[in-house]
Design a protein that fits this description.
seven-stranded parallel β-sheet
């Protein structure tokens, strides 16, 4: 039985990861300060004797006995990471340092949840791991983009200098149950607006593209990467390479919800990427992973989750 620490364990991805790790027979500790995570995401896990929750901010040092660390602590949606941009930077940088130090003290393996945002508004399509990106370092998204880029730097410097056993994954757009309805991400935004009969807000002409990976597929890839041999460090792209325009996504969701919502078009936000699609060749080669759940099936499950959540709010 491994002793596993998941920072950001009450978040969207972190809670699904904790659940999967517990199901595999591990002892799991979730660390979170509830900035964007929620207790209800992990409520069902408290009955499991192998689960523990610790309220803690990764900006502060942390001591614990642990074999494996998944560093997922950071708000991942623009609404939340732009709410306190300085805190977003420190969570990425100081949080990475504190967790790397914890890994060093324990001789533990540690994974960094990086992001496709390190590619910025890419000039290469699809994005491969050897592409260095096109990021505006002083724009409104830079607190997240550059924070994650710096975290990757720290991970590889700790690996080279202190021989820390690291894994780095670059996560592309992910969706599924436990997303926040107020997080500003496109899938949750569109579903909530459609269920409420509100206008669907599309930015620009809706021709910018994204690739959407269902959360179950993503968690399988994260665990697959963590279980690769020690010499495999990454970075490795994980996401679904099927590409859709934002307008297509809006039309899918309106049809699937039977909504009367109309699509309205607003100006593009600053530094919004025009194209986003992962090249997942490395993940296929290293741990034989590719996503299995198509967008229609994943959206059906996610819509059902938000329908239930909306009903609970009305009650």
């Amino acid at each position: 039985m491994q002793r596993i620490l998941v920072t950001g364990g009450a978040g969207f991805l972190g809670s699904h990861l904790c659940e999967s790790l517990l199901a595999a027979g591990n002892k799991v500790t979730a660390l979170d300060n509830y900035f964007s995570g929620r207790r209800e995401n992990i409520e069902s896990l408290f009955a499991n004797p192998n689960f523990e929750f610790i309220y803690h901010d990764v900006n502060q040092p942390f001591s614990y006995q642990v074999d494996v660390i998944y560093n997922f602590a950071c708000p991942a949606s623009p609404v939340y990471y732009q709410r306190d941009p300085v805190s977003t930077v420190t969570t990425n940088v100081l949080g990475a340092i504190n967790m790397l130090e914890l890994a060093r003290q324990n001789g533990a393996r540690i994974m960094q949840a990086s992001t496709s945002e390190i590619y910025g508004d890419p000039e290469v399509h699809p994005q491969q791991e050897d592409y260095h990106g096109n990021v505006n370092p002083i724009g409104p998204r830079a607190c997240y983009d550059e924070g994650k880029r710096c975290a990757e730097t720290l991970f590889f410097d700790y690996h080279r200098e202190k021989k820390i056993d690291i894994k780095v994954v670059r996560i592309f757009n992910t969706y599924g149950p436990r997303m926040r309805s107020d997080d500003g991400r496109v899938v949750s935004n569109f579903i909530v607006q459609a269920l409420r009969g509100e206008p669907i807000t599309v930015y620009g002409k809706g021709q910018q593209t994204r690739s959407f990976c269902y959360v179950d597929d993503l968690i399988a890839s994260i665990i697959g990467m963590m279980n690769t041999p020690k010499n495999v460090t990454g970075p490795v792209n994980i996401g679904n390479p099927s590409e859709f325009t934002i307008l297509e996504l809006a039309q899918h969701i309106i049809k699937m919800t039977g909504s009367s919502s109309k699509i309205i078009f607003n100006p593009l936000p600053a530094d919004d990427p025009k194209q986003r699609r992962p090249d997942i060749s490395r993940a296929k080669e290293l741990f034989n992973w590719e996503p299995k759940i198509e967008l229609a099936e994943g959206l059906e499950r996610t819509i059902a989750y938000f329908m239930k959540e909306q009903e609970e709010v009305r009650v």
